[in-house]
Amino acid sequence: MKTFFSSLAFAAIASTSALTLASQAFAQTVPVNPTNQSTQKLRITLEEAIKMGMGYSKTLHTSQVKVAAAEARIGEANAAMLPSLGVSASYARLSDIPADRQFRFEFNASSLFDISKVDRALLMNPNVAQTFQAIQQATTPRQPVPGEAPPPPAFPILLDNVAFQANITYPVFTGFRLEAQKAAAEYSSQAATQDLVKDKIETEFSIKNAYWTLYKVRELQKLTAETIAQVTARLGDAQNLLKSGLLTTNDVLRLQLQLSNAKITNIDANNAARLSAVALNNTLGLPLGTEVELASTIDYKPAEVPDYEKAIQRSLESRAEVSGTQLRIKAAEEGVRAARGGFLPTLALSGSALEANPNQRFVGRPAEFNFSWQLAAQLSWTVWNWNTSGYQVAQAEAQVAQAEDALSMLKDGIKLEVTQNYLTLQQSREKVAVAQQGVEQANENYRITNEKFKKGLALTSDLTDAETFQLQAKVSYVSSVVDYEIAQARLQKSIGEQPALAGK
Fold first, then answer.
1. Which one of 76, 282, 412, 442 is at 20 to 30 Å from 353 when CA atoms are compared?
2. What is the mean pLDDT of residues 410-438?
3. Which segments of 174-246 does DSSP mark as H helices, in order?
4. CATH number belonging to the domain at 2-82+176-344+388-495, selected among 3.20.20.100, 2.30.29.30, 1.20.1600.10, 1.10.260.40
5. CB 128: neighbour CB atoms within 10 A?
6. Distance (Å, rounded) from C-alpha 376 to C-alpha 359?
7. Is the dihedral of CA 21, 23, 24, 30 positive or negative?
8. pLDDT tens, 67-124?
9. Phi-psi domain of 175 (left: phi exceeds 0; alpha: psi -120 through 50; beta: other)
10. Would you call 334 exposed, middle or buried from its count of C-beta atoms within 10 A (0-12, 13-18, 19+)?
């Protein structure tokens, strides 16, 4: 008897402790002593718990942020294929130039019109000779006259330089790199969406697991409490019979030992119930001291076990992890296409508009703002870069191979997971049938033994054993029913079925 109760308590504590450790991953802060918190009461159904837990889950929030980031990368890749416009403005203050160092335009063409080198016969013409002399006089540098101001500089000196410029660039052809990057971003975004679906399904299952585990432990808690009440009443009757000489001291001691064991088991069950409640509160984002009343119960209705081969095939087709990995393979293949673009030329069109003072294209004009523009086409082709592009392609192809290996390992893991959950569900269903039959047999055994005891045909030890068998049968039935419910949910998760609330 003592061994049975101890094993029951340790099994409950072990399961709830493992659940608590898993649920702590969703919590941001965990108080040291949850019993010190203000107690709140909450009655909640399983559906309400799922909605609350999925709304609180930090894992789902992280997945949603990843989806938003992946969608933003699509916009970034698309924007890179469109014309880009940039504007700039500049102002510069220049230092002044001394007058003696300013550039002045002087043209000396005397060497070009040296009359001494002209044909004498040509100079016999008075008009030609007069024309050459005029040219020579006009092009001979004039000697500076003392006190006379030097001629103005050839270019105006502007100390304040101001410019406003607008540039537009359009990548006409980039070796298909931009197109490949956009496609890769789209595949990555779809993969992130599949990850979100997977996290929703897993989060919903974890909430169900926590909810039904608390239900299971509380049912066991009720059974131990009923046992304590039953043994306490029987002990009182036994003590009265002992005083009347109808029972022996050993019979009373046997009942006292049974009561002590039941109390110890009840203490363990109460603690296991508290741990399970804390784990559920932690998963739902509630204060850890909240008293949660479970409004949902298990109405055992054995469902038909799906065909094994169909379950395997469906899991490989429906699991979000498989779809996400396949999309990542496509994204990696687009990375290969982008890397191969390094072997191809690139072509871009550009244009600019400039409003500046001074504008270098308007030399010799007065100091004022002048507008100018330009259009250009640029062709670039890397002929040799020591096979850098080839190395980049090799890296991208290696990433594709890694993604394909990851998909293969994922499928192997899914097959193993579905097989294990399939066998567990079958076992749970068989255990429920056996436990249900055991409850009926234990109840009948207790009824017969109790009637015999009342007639003096059965010993106290016989009735105590009948009570023990009855409690054991009830505990086995409750545990098997809850385990069946959890096993069914786990198989659905491993197959890839999306519960109704997972898609919301």
1. 76
2. 95
3. 177-244
4. 1.20.1600.10
5. 14
6. 19
7. negative
8. 999 999 999 999 999 999 999 999 999 888 776 666 555 555 555 555 566 666 666 7
9. left
10. buried
pTM of the full structure:
0.79
Q: Is pLDDT above 60 for 371?
A: yes
Report the C-alpha gap between 254 and 463 in whole angstroms: 11
Burial status of residue 143 (CB atoms within 10 A of its CB: 0-12, 13-18, 19 or more): exposed
d(CA 453, CA 277): 41
**Block residue for tokens 């290969």:** 336
d(CA 389, CA 368) in angstroms, rounded, equals 49
CB 496 within 8 A of CB 29: no
Confidence of residue 144 (pLDDT cuts 50, 70, 90): low
Using an 8 Å Cβ cutoff, are 327 and 194 in contact?
A: yes
* Rg, Å, the chain Cα set: 46
Tokens, residue 192: 């992130």
> Hey, what are 184's tokens?
């890769």
pLDDT of the residue at 460: 80
What gap in Å lies between CA 201 and CA 360, rounded to an integer?
67
**Cα–Cα distance list, 240 to 245, 252, 453, 456 (Å):** 9, 10, 16, 16
CA angle 104, 108, 112 (to 5 degrees): 155
- The per-residue pLDDT for range 382-408, each reduced to its tens digit, is 999 999 999 999 999 999 999 999 999
Question: What are the residue boundaries of the structural domains of the chain, listed by start?
Answer: 2-82+176-344+388-495
- In a 13 Å sphere around the CA of 277, the CA atoms on its Cβ side amount to 24
Residue 230 is predicted with a pLDDT of 87
For 429-448, write each residue's pLDDT tens digit.
Answer: 999 999 999 999 999 999 99
CA 232, chain centre distance (Å): 55
